[in-house]
Design a protein that fits this description.
CATH class of the largest domain: Mainly Alpha
Radius of gyration: 29 Å
Protein name: RNA polymerase sigma factor
Shape: elongated
Number of strands: 2
Oligomer: single chain
Order of helices and strands: HHHEEHHHH
Helix content: 55-70%
Distance between the termini: 61 Å
Strand content: under 5%
Family: Belongs to the sigma-70 factor family. ECF subfamily.
Number of helices: 7
GO biological process, one term: DNA-templated transcription initiation
GO molecular function: DNA binding; sigma factor activity
Organism: Fulvitalea axinellae
Structural class: mainly alpha
CATH superfamily of the largest domain: RNA polymerase sigma factor, region 2, helix turn helix motif
CATH topology of the largest domain: Rna Polymerase Sigma Factor, Chain: A
């Protein structure tokens, strides 16, 4: 397919691409930008199009992938668009204020609960919490690996019971 034929075919298909762009973006201006970006990518990658295949499907795929990439980029920036008359771009992470009092209480309660555990449950649990592997704990405490796993499981279960006030609802 020559460059002129390719250009004419894309020109014919662009009218059917616009409604798809509108469905994806829900905004006429963004749909126009997406359509323009799709056509540009199609022209730049004309050599990758296999003659005899479905050009319309190829263009739809380019458009969908472009939309997804742009959406992921926007999410990564963690920015949303304020739709008020001023149209400000607001970085949502800058507006978060945390009160550390609640987490301070939680840490104190967690430490107290761990201290209440029997030594044979607390020690393997703390070792695992600090990053030791099961086999390392078993070697250090000279007990079977199954016993280590069981003790850590029981410690977690007891801690969950002692800290049930912090359960997410």
């Amino acid at each position: 397919m020559t460059g002129i034929e390719f250009s004419n075919n894309i020109n014919k298909l662009s009218s059917s691409l616009r409604p798809f762009a509108l469905r994806l973006t829900k905004d006429p201006e963004e749909a126009n930008d997406l359509l323009q970006e799709t056509v540009l990518k199609a022209f730049n990658n004309r050599d990758k199009f296999a003659a005899g295949t479905n050009l319309k499907a190829w263009l739809y795929t380019i458009m969908k992938n472009t939309f997804i990439t742009n959406y992921q980029r926007m999410v990564r920036r963690n920015t949303f668009i304020d739709t008020t008359d001023n149209l400000h771009y607001i970085n949502s992470s800058g507006n978060i204020t945390e009160n550390m009092a609640y987490s301070g209480f939680a840490i104190t309660d967690i430490k107290k609960a761990i201290a209440k555990l029997e030594d044979n449950y607390r020690i393997p649990f703390l070792m695992h919490f600090r990053g030791f592997k099961y086999h390392e704990i078993a070697d250090k405490l000279e007990i079977p690996i199954g016993t280590v796993k069981n003790r850590i499981h029981i410690a977690r279960k007891e801690l969950k019971f002692m800290l049930k006030n912090y359960e997410m609802k």
